[in-house]
Amino acid sequence: MTDRREVIEILNDLLSLERGSLISHLLASTVFVSRATAREDLAVRRMVREIDEHQRWLVDAIVGLRGGVAPGRPDPRAAELHYQELRHVLPRVIRNEQRIVEEYEQALPRLGAWPEAAAASSRILARHREHVRELTSFMTSGAPPAAGSVSAAK
Ligand SMILES: [Fe+2]
Questions:
Q1: Separation of CA 144 and ligand 1 centre (Å)
Q2: How would DSSP label each residue in 58-123?
Q3: How far is 36 from 46, CA to CA, in rounded Å?
Q4: How far, in Å, is the centroid of ligand 1 from the Cα of 65?
């Protein structure tokens, strides 16, 4: 069984993954900003808010276990994303999301005996699965999106 110290370590690893999520950098990408539809822009802004919320849930779970929250570090991988074409940026962001999903899937069975940690992590996992689905739909909707694509998708 996973002990308290290990659970805190797992939660800190998940927190570090959330901090390293590449989604937030889409908003700083000039290519995304100029080509995204209003619907895609809103979806990404919502995902970024959700990632902030995930971090608060993980911190609450860590503090609830009387654990120490590891300090965050800036992610140097993200800076270059700002200048890349959307067709290169989106696949990277999707791969990053898929990796986050896999890490949660691997962590969850180890959190089974810790209900609050497991509940927070499975809520977050469901969100990230949805993020992968939504981001993938951006790819299939084509870039640059046609002017009528928002109404056509309704
Ligand atoms: Fe996500």
A1: 23
A2: HHHHHHHTTPPPPPP---GGGGGGGGS-HHHHHHHHHHHHHHHHHHHHHHGGGGTT-HHHHHHHHH
A3: 14
A4: 24
Centre of ligand 1 to C-alpha 109, Å, is 20
Query: 55-94, pLDDT tens digit by residue?
Result: 999 999 999 999 999 998 766 666 666 666 667 788 889 9
For 83-133, the pLDDT digits (tens) are 666 677 888 899 999 999 999 999 999 998 899 999 999 999 999 999 999
- Which DSSP letter does residue 144 get? S
Residues with CB under 5 A from ligand 1 (ion): 128, 131
pTM of the model: 0.83
Determine whether domain 4-73+80-146 maps to CATH 1.20.1260.10: yes
Q: How far is the CA of 105 from the centre of ligand 1 (A)?
A: 13
Q: Taking the CA atoms of 94, 81, 59 and 9 in sequence, report the sign of the dihedral they define.
A: positive
